[in-house]
């Protein structure tokens, strides 16, 4: 029996159904590529198709909708990725400089008509370990958005999934704004989880194990400080961009960027307040530890003072030399014992009179 013919791929196939076929199949480290047009979801596109579309878009005789753009996402683990981008894409030198330096401080900079962004996000299986932070480098122009990473990121994976599910973006900058909002959500989640840990420390503060709790708080505080430095965008660069944006950026995108900046400011304020709260808890624990140490030293001092008369008498009367008092008296031991009781009581009174 003849086998049924294999159906050919139709040109009218839904673009999202083709996305898994293109994943990782293109050379030069391309992970995914999409072409966005007005009122349509992103269509998967190869490197050759992207270069041809960019060439046609730059040509004066080929009008292109201002809301159309290409997004290319690269894996920097491929050694040929950067060389291909240099040869085929007109990207800002600041973008390649950021890739070469490996800068991980979150920021958005204006490099002429290009925007160069460094976005940090948590890697998979994140558990408050700063080493699990992964970095995404991105450059955005009116027609092209290029992103590159060395390790998988949750935010970029969610963005790709949203595009494959039919998500629409009106401009190349809206992709970057989407990533910034995702980063803000990551910070909110981190603040919530850290707050739960701090609440647990407060609830168990009176139950002992102060040294361990103090060490846990110190580790959490160091992690939060590093995460704030990595995930929080530089306010100076954002304010400069908002004050003097490139001409191709639409006003609605600027409004969304301002809103994202305000959300970041609120989250950072909560993060700094949480760090201050941890600092106060550390000081309280340190005060309790110091109080326990003082009590131990006081107890040791009292025992030493109370034993001082006995030690002196045993030292004096144990020299076995002539002329020891009361050596011939039948009541000598009782008299010495009473003297020791008196001196010990006097020493105890002197030690306890200013205890409070």
From TrEMBL:
CDD domains: ZntB_u1. Residues 264-291 form a coiled coil. The chain crosses the membrane at residues 297-319, 331-352. Pfam families: CorA (PF01544). It is found in: Cell membrane. Keywords: Cell inner membrane, Cell membrane, Coiled coil, Ion transport, Membrane, Transmembrane, Transmembrane helix, Transport, Zinc. Its main location: membrane. It is a multi-pass membrane protein. Belongs to the CorA metal ion transporter (MIT) (TC 1.A.35) family. This is Transporter.
